[in-house]
Amino acid sequence: MNIFDKCDKFTVAKDVMATGCYPYFRRVESGQDPEVIIEGKKVIMMGSNNYLGLTSYWRLKASSIRATQKYGVGCVGSRFLNGTLDIHEELEKKLATFVRKEKAILFSTGMQANLGALSSLVGKNDTVITDKYDHASIIDGCRLSFGQMKRFKHNDMQDLERVLIPLKDMTKLIVVDGIFSMEGDIVNLPEIVRLAKKYNAQVMVDDAHSLGVLGKQGRGTCEYFGLTDEVDIIMGTFSKAFASVGGFIAANDSIVHYIKHNARALIFSASLPPSNVASVMAALEVIKKDNYRIKRLWRNTHKMMKGFKNLGFDTGTSDTPIIPIVVGDDFKAFQMWRMLFDLGIFTTPIVSPAVPPGRALIRVSNMATHTDKQLDKVLKIFGEVGRELGIIPSVNKKGTCSSVNKKRFRFWEKINRNMIKKWMKRLWNIKS
Fold it and tell me: Is the domain of 220 the same as that of 306?
């Protein structure tokens, strides 16, 4: 027996790659713009979290370059030891002010922010309560803690109350996403706050996909609902609207102070490089000074939502820039992804068990910098592919997908569906 035997036996992903329908780890050879080069092919990027289109904005790049020239390329140490720069503290103050909390603490990734906060705050006599659609970083943070974890049905407040009732006299924390990253719907924060007060619970909101998107000034879910003072902890990331990498936790002074001295994900990780800190600072200033990009993002979102619905697609319960195109069959979702890619559109297929059986979807995410011409092309191709696959009605019995060469997709008939099911089950076990 060898500990690496499992590695030699893991062939299912390679088997899927051989079919030509493997959608992950695609090599991007350009900046994360509305159009990108993926493996030598120019495509419209409809699968990025670059909501405000800031990854290539000159102000962010210039700030990053200046910080590199002043501080070098890294901090070679953790925040706890030698890795705290003056710009780390400056960004923390600005973030705390932006989200209307007393203090903030930076982490090297959003994943680490949730791991560090939850594993340190939730003790052996505590309970953490999560939505079943919460991000994997929340789930893993709960698993690393010594507390017990309870889950409630997605955005189901009746089920949340069912979970809360027997825990009324226990210390507990409710943790939810602001915008759920697959379905694109917004958490029912007003009801969560009401139930938290009723059953003496605290509330933490993961605003990874909400900062720079929700609220008039892009301050996130709490601003959107006017509940900033009612939420105890706000977590945010820099790898979405802020166009960089990293994360933060914002709360009152005592909570942040405790996390700083107890979160292993913070104490034992190297701190954010100066270039990233400076670019995030520049992104924050762009968002604060002018909400044009936020307005443009929502204009594009409304255009695409209306366009998809007019074509006949099921977009679920989304009302954000993340639009799920419900396909139904897992294998049809893979086929649709491949057809869209070959026709110049990059998206992301989401299949069971990441979603319930029969609810496979194509995840589309909008950017402020998409042009009308690009979006019109996306809608046109989605319509053609959707009709060809029978996802939306055809205008005639023969179909209307003039762009699609059916012969290119005969490989699909050779795919072992059980193989794909096995692979996705394994992948989802890792993610959840």
Answer: no
